[in-house]
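look at this fold:
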Amino acid sequence: MVTSLHSAHAVHATPLSVLALLDAAAAPCWIVDRDFVITHANPAMCALLGYRDGEMIGSPVLAFVADESRPTLERQVALRGLTPRRAYDVTLLRSDGTPTYTVVNDGTLPDSGAAFLVVTDVSRRHLAETLLKHERDQLADTVERINRFLDLLCRDLKEPLSAILGVAQMLPGCGELCDDAGRQVLRMIENLALWSRLQLNQVPCDLRTYHLGGVAHDVVEEMTPIAARRAIALVNEVRDAPVLADLSALATVLGHLVDNAVRFSPSGSTVVLSSSTGRDGVALRVRDEGVGVPPETLPRLFHLDHAHATTGLDGHLGSGLGLLIARLLTERMGGELLLESRPGHGTTATVLLRPAA
């Protein structure tokens, strides 16, 4: 009986001119009393939810709200009058029980104790967003399956290929040729496997304090025989500065950068590794005297859709994944990888690392 009195008072207090204006409006609208009981529903609201004229009057708004949206509207009931003219997402229920996705704007009617709720039907937008999310989820699942397949394929290929290369190297006159070709193929397989694991977030990143000089020494020692076969000198000027890094990731990044420098440098040239310590961290540089890269090409080297096979001066084909992997690993360590280059003047790759605390 109290609700009926409130509703009757709200209707009586709402000017007829306001009711006429709402009835003529294209936007669905309710008028409710202080308890959010419906005192008026315009024709657009009746059409939206599938009710006859007057059929919703006297019912609480919550009777037409889906369960998941009830807490939202209940909060608005509690707050009404404190923060007028709010907008919030509400799922309403049609007369047949089907959901209608809406945005509700509310406001108060002066001197009446009543409020109005203007409803915007966003069901089409909600459907489009739902379909888009479904497509994104499907795409993510497909990408994950592809990456898992590539990871398994690389692991299956690596062991038998290593065995074949081991036998081939013992053949007369094939040792050095097989060693170079084998390293090239194995490098591609390892890059592909690592890229797949990175996409699956399966590469751990254990940040600890390491001394840069030791990591650089190990990489130079590994790469020196390869560089020597092409009469390229590796010069290690890296200082033993402490950095915060993942040891495996740092060695991989530096290995890729030195490998790139050697492959794109002419015989008789020098590749220099150096470092410097500044206020913001430690800079590790790999500088070569190779062919260089045009300025317009530099930004594209770090994008997968622009990664393409390139042939180094050693005649070996590269997939372009090495630089992408180096940048991903550097960023995972909280660092940054930069490239500077000019055609005919070589390239300098700089890895900015966080200093150890």
The chain is about 45% helix and 20% strand. Residues 123-203 form one domain. The chain has three domains: 2-121, 123-203, 204-357. The chain has a mean pLDDT of 81.
